[in-house]
Amino acid sequence: MTWTALAALGILLAGAPALPGIAIKTKAFLSGRRGAPVLQLYYDLVKLLRKGSIYSNTTTWVFRAGPVVALASLLAAALLLPLDGQAAPVHFEGDLLAFAGLLALGRFALVLAGLDTGSSFEGMGASREVTFASFAEPGLFLCLIALVLATSEVTLSGMLGGSLGAAWSRAAPALVLVGISLFVLLLAENSRVPVDDPATHLELTMIHEVIVLDHSGPDLALILFGSAVKLALFGALVVGVFVPRAGLNGALAIAVLLAGIALVAVLVGVVESVMARLRLTRVPQLLAGASALALLAVILLLR
Amino acid sequence: MVAAGVLLILAAGTLAVALARWPGPADRAFSLVFGAGGALTAAPALAVLAGAPPSELRFESGIPGGPWVFGVDALSAVFLLAIAGVGVACALYGVAYLRGERGARAVGLAHLYVALLVAALVMVVTARAAVPFLIAWESMAIAAYVLIVFHHQHAEIRRAGLLYLVATHAGTLALFALFAVWGAGATDLTFSALAERAPLLPRDGGVVLALGLVGFGVKAGIVPLHFWLPEAHAAAPSHVSALMSGIVIKMGIYGLLRVLTLLGSAPAWFGWILLVLGAVSGLLGVLWALAQHDIKRLLAFHSVENIGIILLGMGAGSLGLAHGSSTLAVLGFAGAALHTLNHALFKSLLFLSAGSLTHGTGTREIDRLGGLARRMPLTGVAFLIGAAAIVGLPPLNGFLSEWLVFRALLHAGVGGGGERIAILGAAVLGLIGALALACFAKVVGIIFLGVPRDPAASAAHESPAGMVRPLLVVAGACVLIGLLPVLVLPPALRAGRLVAGVAGGVVAPDPAAPPATVFMLGLAAALVAGMLVTRRWPNRDQIAAQTWACGYAHPTPRMQYTASSFAAPLLALYRPVTGVRTHRSAGAFGTHAIDPVLERVLRPAWRGVRAAARWARPIQGGRLSLRLIYVQAAVIALLLYLLLEGRTP
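Structure tokens for the assembled complex are given below, as produced in the milestone run.
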């Protein structure tokens, strides 16, 4: 474990709430509006943390545990990513399954917390969330498998660290496919357009936002912070694939990562400006498409 | 020591029958003696897994097939541990579970058969010769049958029992063929003699492996041989379902692993077949489970899914054997063995919890339940732990074994030989996990969360301590195994090395175990700390109110999502393989699931056989003259055969 890795993690967590702001600002700029401040989510978080909570009479401890488990699992997943381009604070053989498993743990906690309210809105969101996740999950696994094949490494630190540069010179087309696929998964996992719309106010059309409809106060703050962290993690994954940073020194590597993630957030905003949300029945096709791209990469590498 | 344990377990069963007149002492004696027997059985298994040399017992049998040999090695030990642990938990649970039926049914006899079943299971995994193995195998099958039809007044339970009996005997037939082929040239039928004979087997042991795949595959419930499994597991009393799903079907896995151990090698095609069967069983198992509305049928289909995951590990291991990669073989077989143990724990936990909630509500229909986490808090916690474990979420035991299987598949991918394609199995593992998450979100959410959908659920009560205590102990085991990879991985790898044929010598510890342990403990600590911190958040008002229904003032339980509606989008997307029919009307929505293998293949085939039999019936008309003509014809045919062979009688 190195100090740069921990520093990178700290900076990433502190900066994560700016990412949704960057996406919204981009969107506003492209549509000729001024938009909310980039730091809006920080203000929201502070406000929510000082508020009380309302709990439905139907809920149990599962509802209260949901946001905590969701955030804790994301923070644990963050420990597995080599944010400084060298090695993550924790790494062991096959830690990619732990990364995917932790994302699943967070999802499980939020879905159950939603179902705990006994509301049909949350039920609908929960049902959609697990349905679409079952299409996104093979995509994520195929991307990770492609990276394993490209680098012959079986840890996240190995495949996004030192071996990635050599892999780019060997298998650039496959890695481009993996990066694109990961970007689509980023949009889906973080409930952005074209899969979900974080800005909509019509509960019937939402996925992620409708699961957390009943959360309030500090609970909601944990969930919003968790969403920002998740966006940052997927951003770090996309940047990690496209920009091998093993050769850079610590501070430069972190700076490149942050700039890259900010660029990803801008891209998210651009996508939201030029596309409409897909019909729900089309979402599995999009995700299957992303999986197909990753599968193509795997096949290229197995050739 | 194992023998003493088995004798104690049998004595416990006998006591339960002998003391049937005095229910209180009978229950106490059964629990105490059974528990002691389980402990005695588990002790040598733990010792062997910790590194003690394997032991053997020989008896001269005096019947054909040679001496009867029994032994405990690392592979047996993993299964023994599961049998002893889950067996004791299920037996003790059964005491409380069946208490209400005393007087109405022969409860003592049920306890005796549980004891017989567990004793037979111990004998299956310790037998080192074909004859005692087959005897134990059949005893196990029969004891399980008797327990399945415990509530035999219901026609569908008798039918499920019959289906099970037919399937298991079809499998046993294949096992007889297996040992006949294998033992044909061997000195006797002990496993050591069979192992010596292994290099001389035709087609690199391909025939033996194929027969084993059928014979053991029926028991394990590998798709398409799973058709008996959901019926039988749903029909049995819950503690028997837990034993069957947790342990009995694992004997199929044990058999395959033992055959691979004795052969010492496997052709590559066998590894590929295992991988494909594993992927198919895993995916179809979980998809069929999604469509179920009966909690026990749903759990039974999840056993098919988990057998699929175990097969993925075994497939990777077999490929390692075929391609001479011992790391791959060890990881694959260790993952399969550990997942077997873990599945035994969390699946029995889930079945026992399901029994508890059936006990408390009187129904197994998921759509009639709801809000049980308030009314049955301990059962709820136990079920939630089991659900998170079966989905493979860290930091629980299901994750740990899936992680080993996953590592094996990744290792195949970076190996560089023909086995590289096996890495796609890792993606299948991911898909299975995501679908299992969907399914258990449905089960936990609809049954335990929200508000009751039916009076049966609102009148629910927590089960007696005798049922809840075993639940909590098994749940604790699931958590502990998940938190301590550093303690659990070495024994699992020891079993893997035995099957892979690289046993013995000093082995370097798994370098991934310590960081994984630190990570899991840290995660658990973070979860607990997070809960404590948010609970004591400073000056925080907490208001209790109605669920926010977006302005709608009078939400009713009927407005909640149901199991049908929750799973509907997924089932619609996977309709071609699930065989689920949807029916909607203005006021109701429902789905109806059938088992495609049973309903579309086996039943039509059986109707065809029956039609053919009716056509052939006149041959056996019962007239004496006709029969004499048959005898005559047979004699003439035999004489002709001898003449053509050139010999005179």
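The longest strand of chain B covers residues 55-59. Chain B has a mean pLDDT of 91. Further analysis is deferred to the final report.
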